[in-house]
Amino acid sequence: MIKMDLFNPNFDVWNIIYILLIFVVMPVLYLRLSYWQIVWKLEEVARTIDSYLANAEKIIIKKVSKNPSKELKESIKHFLEFFTIEPVKLDPYGIVSKFEHITNLAEERYKYFVNQIAPNSDVETKANIMMGLSGAISLNFLSKVVKHYLGLIKKTKNFQLGLIFQLNMPLIERASKALLHGTEALTNGWPIGDAIGNLIGASLVEDGKLKEIEEDTLLGRRKIKGKEVYIIRAKGPGGRLGKLGKAVEKITKKEKIAKIITIDAAVKLEGEETGSIAEGIGVAIGGIGVDKAYIENIAVKKKIPITTIIVKMSEEEAIQPMKKEILASKEKVLRLIEEEIARTKEKGKVIVVGVGNSCGIGNNKKEVEESEKKIKEVIKIFEEREKKKSRFFSF
User: Fold this and answer.
1) pLDDT tens digits, residue range 326-342?
2) How many other C-beta atoms can be found within 10 angstroms of the C-beta atom of residue 148?
3) What backbone torsions phi and psi does residue 264 show, to the nearest 5 degrees?
4) Can you tell me the distance from the alpha carbon of 180 to that of 319, in angstroms, rounded to the nearest whole number?
5) Dihedral of the alpha carbons of 46, 49, 50, 56, in degrees to the nearest 10
6) Which of 54, 103, 251, 290 has its CB surrounded by the most CB atoms within 10 Å?
7) CA 323 to each of CA 120, 142, 329, 350: distance values in angstroms, whole numbers, following the listed order
8) Using alpha carbons only, how large is the chain's radius of gyration in Å?
9) Which residue has the higher pLDDT, 144 or 35?
10) What are the residues facing 310 on neighbouring strands?
11) How does DSSP assign 243-256, residue by residue?
C-alpha cells in the first residue's frame, strides 16, 4: 500500500507520479486514443463507401455507353443527388393520394432522365437503368450521412457521438455493400431477392395471354383447383414495381372476388433461415403504402378475405442478386397457393398478387425458366468472386 505523507523526508516523489499516471493521465490518454481510433475507423468506412459509390457509377455509365463523355458522367453524378420530399402528414385525410402523386412525379423524372442519357436503349434496358439509378442514389445518400457524422465528430471532438455512431458501423457497411451489389444486379437485369413474389406470380401464368391492366402491370388468367384465378404482377423482364393496388381495385370493382392472396419477400429475424416461408393475414406489400392502401380499402368495402405468403430474407438479401435458398422456396409457395385456393369455399374468383421487383423476371412460366437459369449463373459469378477473395486473404 502506498503511504502518502508529503512531510515525511523519506516520501518518494515517484509515488505521486505513479498516482497521477494511474488516476489522471491514463484515463485522459485512453479517451484520446479511443477518440482517434473511432475517427480512423469512420474515415476507413467513408473511404470504403466512396469506393462502392464510384463502382456503382461505373456500372451505370458502362450500361449507358461504352465511350461515355465527360458531360454524361457529370450528368449521372448530378442525378445521384435527386431526392423526393414526402407530403405533410398533419392532416391524414388524403395522404395516400398525396404519396401517390409524389411517387408518380419521381417516376416520371427518372424516365425523363434515362431517356436523355440512353435514348437508343430498348424499353427493358431503360427500366433496368432506372432501378440501378435508385440503388446508386441510396448509396450516395449513405455516403453523405457517414461523411456528415465524421465531420461533426471531428469538429466537436465529441467522443460519445463517435462511440454511438461506431456501434452502427457494421450495419452501415453491410447496407452499403448490399446497395453496390443491388445496383449491379438491377442495372444488368439480374433478379434480386425481392423479385421472388414476382417470379412466383409469373410461374402461375402458363401461356402468353397477358393483358396490361395498369401501367407496367400485367394480368393473367387460369383455373386452379376449379377456381378462376387472376394473377397480377409487375411487367418484366425490365425492373418495375407496377401499379398492383390499382389493378386489384379495378378487377374487384368489376368481378365477384372470393379471396385475395399476396406473395412477397419479407424481412427475416436473425436466426431465421433465408428462404423460409410463413403464411398470414393481410396485404404483404412494402414501400410507402400506396398499393397496400388501395387493396385494403377495396377489401374492407367488399369484405374480401386477404391472405399472404411470405418468403423470408434479410434486408441485404432482398436488394442483392437472388440466392439459391430464396429460389428454392418457389415450389413450396406454389403448393401453398394451390392449398389456399382449394380452401376457398366462397363463390367468386381469386386474385393472386405476385409482389416485388420484376427485374430479370419473364412474364410467364416458360420465360421464368430462362430467368431461373440466369439466377443460377449469377449465383456462380458471386461464388467465384468469394473464392477469389478467400484466396487473396489466405496469404
Assistant:
1) 999 999 999 999 999 99
2) 10
3) -155, 165
4) 9
5) -170
6) 290
7) 32, 24, 10, 30
8) 27
9) 144
10) 264, 278
11) -HHHHHHHHHHHS-
Q: Is 71 exposed, middle or buried (0-12, 13-18, 19+ CB in 10 A)?
A: exposed
- List the domain boundaries for the chain: 26-188, 193-386
How many other C-beta atoms are found inside a 10 Å radius of the C-beta of residue 367?
Answer: 17
**pTM of the predicted model as reported, rounded to 2 decimal places:** 0.87
pLDDT band at 210 (very low <50, low <70, confident <90, very high): confident
Judging by DSSP bridges, how do beta strands 211-214 and 349-354 pair with one another?
unpaired
Fill in the DSSP letter of residue 394: T
* CA gap 352, 345 in Å, rounded: 16
Q: 3-state DSSP call for residue 223?
A: strand
DSSP 195: G
Q: CA-CA distance, 172 to 202, in Å (whole number)?
A: 34
Cell numbers given for 118 = 440512353
Paired with 309 in beta bridges are: 263, 279
**What angle (nearest 5°) sits at the alpha carbon of residue 291, between those of residues 286 and 297?**
120
Provide the total of helices (H) and of strands (E) in the chain, helices listed first: 14, 7
Neighbours of 274 (CB within 10 A): 17
pLDDT at 8 over 70: no
Q: Which residue has the cell 430474407?
A: 313
Is 180:143 a contact under the CB 8 Å cutoff?
Answer: no
What mean pLDDT, rounded, does the chain reach? 89
Contact 289, 98 (CB under 8 A): no
Q: 28 is written with which cell numbers?
A: 485522459
Q: How far apart are CA 337 and CA 331, in angstroms?
A: 10
